[in-house]
């Protein structure tokens, strides 16, 4: 009998707190950037739910904008 692999795929979408930890800043910094139209690209779902995509966070870091 072959053992089944129990793979879980990590989501490329992060909450504000997860994205902040990824960038080594605070959640408050992320919220301030959003309110000023700065920082990495983010997505609003349902008008309230904020999510960041890993690729956008990486692009932001590569641009040296932090």
From TrEMBL:
Pfam families: HTH_17. The lineage of its organism: Bacteria, Pseudomonadati, Pseudomonadota, Alphaproteobacteria, Rhodobacterales. InterPro entries: DNA-bd_dom_put_sf, HTH_17, SinI_DNA-bd. Residues 13-64 form the Helix-turn-helix domain. It comes from [Roseibacterium] beibuensis. This is Helix-turn-helix domain-containing protein.
């Amino acid at each position: 009998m072959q053992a089944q692999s129990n793979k879980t795929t990590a989501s490329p979408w992060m909450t504000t707190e997860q994205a902040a930890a990824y960038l080594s800043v605070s959640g408050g910094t992320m919220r301030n950037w959003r309110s000023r139209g700065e920082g990495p690209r983010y997505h609003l779902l349902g008008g309230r739910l904020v999510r960041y995509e890993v690729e956008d966070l990486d692009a932001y870091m590569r641009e040296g904008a932090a």
